[in-house]
Structure formats: C-alpha cells, structure tokens
Specification:
Order of helices and strands: HHEEHHEEHEHEHHEHEHEHHHHHHHHHH
Strand content: 5-15%
CATH architecture of the largest domain: 3-Layer(aba) Sandwich
Largest sheet: 5 strands, parallel
Subcellular location: Cytoplasm
Shape: elongated
Strand order of the largest sheet: 6-7-8-5-9
GO molecular function: ATP binding; DNA replication origin binding; lipid binding
Organism: Leeuwenhoekiella marinoflava
Bound molecules: adenosine-5'-triphosphate
Radius of gyration: 32 Å
CATH superfamily of the largest domain: P-loop containing nucleotide triphosphate hydrolases
Keywords: ATP-binding, Cytoplasm, DNA replication, DNA-binding, Lipid-binding, Nucleotide-binding
CATH class of the largest domain: Alpha Beta
Helix content: 40-55%
Structural class: alpha/beta
InterPro entries: AAA+_ATPase, Chromosome_initiator_DnaA, Chromosome_initiator_DnaA-like, Chromosome_initiator_DnaA_CS, DnaA_C, DnaA_dom, DnaA_N_dom, DnaA_N_sf
Number of domains: 4
Length: 474
Amino acid sequence: MTAQTVWDNCLSFIQDNITPQAYKTWFEPIRAVKLTDNALSIQVPSKFFYEWLEEHYVKLLKVSLTKELGEHAKLVYVIRMENTYGNRQPFTEKIPSTNRSNKMKSQEVDAPFKNKNPELKNPFVIPGIRNLEIESQLNPNYNFDNFLEGDSNRLARSAGMAVANKPGGTSFNPLLIFGGVGLGKTHLAHAIGVQIKDRYPDKTVLYISAEKFTQQYIESVKKNNRNDFIHFYQVIDVLIVDDIQLLSGKAGTQDVFFHIFNHLHQNGKQVVLTSDKAPVDMQDIEQRLLSRFKWGLSAELQQPGFETRVSIIKNKLYQDGVEMPEDIVEFLANNIKTNIRELEGAIISLIAHSSFNKKEINLELAKKIVDNYVKHTKREVSIDYIQKVVSDYFQMDVDTLQSKTRKRHIVQARQLAMFFAKKLTKASLASIGSQIGKRDHATVLHACKTVDNLSTTDKQFKKYVEDLNKKLTM
Ligand SMILES: Nc1ncnc2c1ncn2[C@@H]1O[C@H](COP(=O)(O)OP(=O)(O)OP(=O)(O)O)[C@@H](O)[C@H]1O
C-alpha cells in the first residue's frame, strides 16, 4: 500500500459522493505525499484550501480514509506555500486534520454519510495542535521595552499598547502610525506584533512591508492564484503592513488590499498600518481605501525632543554595554535631531571608530562623525535663515544686510547671502533678489560671480565662505 493507492481509493469514493465541480475544485489539486503507519499526508495548495476542506469535507475525508486505513486513520495536511507569502523561502507546513465537524456545514457531503458512526467523531484530532503556524516575520528586538516613550510618540505608543493588549477589540482599527523617516514606525509596528504574540500565542500575526505585499500580489497574478493570495491574508488575525504609502499608484494592489482589509475588519481582526505621511497627504491612493485608513486612529510619531533623544542614546549605549561621557551624549542629541536611525548610526560609528583606532571617545571625534552624518542629511535651508546666519556672522542685523548702502563690508555680506541662497536653495535668481533687499536677478548673478572670484583671490574672503558654509550646512 502506498500513499498514492490509498489516496486513489479515497478519491474514487469521494468522487461518487460529491458534485463533479466540487471534486474538480477541491480534490484534483491534492497530492498524496506520504503514508506512515496509519497517517496519510496530503499536500494542499494553500492554507485556505486546507481550511475549506476541514470546513466542508472533513467527514467525507474521514469516512473514506477510515475505510482504507482503519479506525485509527490520521490525515495530515502539507501546505505548500508556493508564493511564500510573508516567508523568505518556500516552505511546507504540516498540520494534522482538526476536528471541525461541529462547525461543518454538511450540504456538500453526501447524505448517507451524515451522522454515520457518530461515536467516531474525530479520528483525526491530535490534541493540542489546532492552529496553523504562520511565520510572523516579527523582529523580537523591536519591542515595547526598548521603544522609549516621549512626548513625540506618546499617543502612538499608547494606542499601540492598547491594540496589542486587545487586538481587534479597540476602536483603533485600523491603527495607522505615521511620521517622518527614521522615527520609529517600523519599530512600533513590530512591538505591537511581538506583544500580541506574547499575550496571545494562538493568534496568527503577520508583519509585511507594502513593497513585499505588492510583489507577492504581482506574482500571484502571474501564477494565476490571486484568490489563494487573498485567502491567505484573510485568515490572519493581526495584519501589520509597513509603509502603506508605497501602494500609491498601484491600483491592482490597492484593490486586493481593499478586499482583504474589509474582510479582516468585518471579522474583528486587527489591522496595523504605517506610513511616512498622514492619510490626507497620501497621493494616488483610492478614496475608498483612504477613507478606511481613517476609520480607526491615525497617530503621528513626531521628532523626539532633546530629552527623549538623550534617553534613546543612553538606552542604546546601555544595551551595547558602552559608556560615554555626558557631554558627548548631549552633543549628539543636540546635533542629530530629525532622525533616530541616524542618531543610532552616529553612536555606532563613534563606538566603531574609537575601538578600531584605539582612541578614546571624545568630543573631537564625535564632531567629526556628526559632520559625516549631518552632511548626508541635507537640510533644506531657507533664505531667511541664510540672511540671519550671515548677518550674525558679520555682527550686523538683517535690515542692515538688506539696506541700500554701498559700504563695502555690507555689500560683501549681502553678496555672500545671495551666493549661499543660490547654492543651498532651489529659489530662482529673481526670487533670491526680491527676498534679499529687493534686488533684481542680474544683481544676484553678479553677486555669485563676485563671491566665486573673491574666494579664489582673497584669503580672508575665502575664510568667510568656508566658515559660513560650515554654519549653514551643519
Ligand atoms: N522611541 C524609540 N525608542 C528607541 N528606539 C527608537 C525609538 N524610535 C525609533 N527608534 C529606533 O530608531 C531606528 C529607526 O526606527 P524605524 O526603523 O522604526 O523608523 P521608521 O520610521 O520605520 O523609518 P522609515 O521611514 O525609514 O521606514 C530603529 O533602530 C529604532 O529602534
């Protein structure tokens, strides 16, 4: 007796007892893979498929298998995750058939088998194994314990906690976490999932980036199993989708997500989304989807204040077992303000530099490293800011800088302001001129040329340019 012969016999029995259409849909795609003792393993194409079989055909399967293998027959499903939804490698899962017969709607099972052997209710059940395990794709290093609280994230963090303690049971559904780059959206999203897994190990949680979701969807269309894709997502209890703004302009993916979302929402399942912008600012996202994003709570992660930045740095150092003088911690917190990832990056390079070069971590080294970091994060400076910095540097006020006077040092300051406005902003010559003392575009062009010339011929002037450049770009 092989798995194949046993299964073939089951099939001919099943075929006689259901409609040809149902047979074709639900039984032809099944492959018999293994027979050990009295357990037959069959491979099904998706988790949804398995659920459907369990829901509708468990009795029929039971009867047919019992006929073949006796009353201790067991059935094991092997789910082949072709599309590896949420998983890196294709993989298979083995789950024993469970006793779902209570819930079973039996119209599709042929009448003669109804209530046959009622005492043999669940020959398939293996106690304790009921739920399907789906890799959550969660990173346990991103948890609530190391997501430090501050004014900038209090709302989002507590909403996240509430959701984690009662997934699907709060009005924060969906919970949309939004905020600028590197402010902790991904971290918080994982933390919610990790906490849910801790508290409710049986819940199926899945973290996925919108990018990967889109790829999977495209793949499913190619392979003609869009429905499997949808069904896979519809059986998840907590779905976390990161960077949802990436669905922008992708109508097909939005449509499929819309259906998944509705299904989950209607069934009291939790949806957590992150985005780099508020729903009102999302472009090319269908209105019906946007309106759903707003159903629950949109919570913003803002730039952390100085104190939160200090605690994040200290916590990071503590976790890495490194000590750093207070003034350096403060220096870092003061100079890297808008992105926590960069703050962490600076700490790591500081530690690396000091240990590779066997140098002590001092302020000089910290400055060097911050220089690197801040250069990479080009800040958009305003023309007002440039005038302020230049005026301060030459110890004059902005009105003087803008005045009509032809005094040489004032003219030079004005020309420098124009030069940096051209260099550091996207403003046109005309617009720069009108903002710096109501001059015309030709004056600005002349100023830029003069600064270029003078900085190659005049040492003192060159120093001005360098100093100002540092001040404006740091
Ligand atoms: N409140 C916080 N406490 C501790 N660490 C934090 C906090 N917020 C963010 N971080 C850390 O900052 C880094 C960047 O966070 P994360 O990757 O979550 O940002 P993001 O908002 O998802 O960025 P992106 O927009 O690039 O996707 C992570 O290493 C994270 O651990």
